[in-house]
Amino acid sequence: MNRHDALVYVFPLWWWNMPAMLKLYIDRVWNYGYAYGPSRLSHQKVLWLTIAGAPRERFEKRYYDRMMEHYFNVGLANYVGICESQFHLLVQGIDPSAEHVDHLLQEAYDQGRNFDS
Asked: What is the reported pTM?
């Protein structure tokens, strides 16, 4: 992790958050003394790329999309000194058509490709 200036996390969305295994990783690795406190992470950027089963409207209806963006970009990334954080939500991942799978793959590819620009 220390050899890179950027981080990318790709995960399925579980209850408006990351899965327990990824949360455990963040809790164990992004700890006091390494990621915050007397020292900070040296990374310049982080991309949070997640896929959810529901359509975008369900996240917008109760502002879950904004809550997740704030949690990942401010609550996590900014707290440990990463000033450039992007949260991107891929939607309608349950039983997608072949066309939608292609769309999701292209969207994920574009996010990764444009991450460093």
From this structure: 0.93
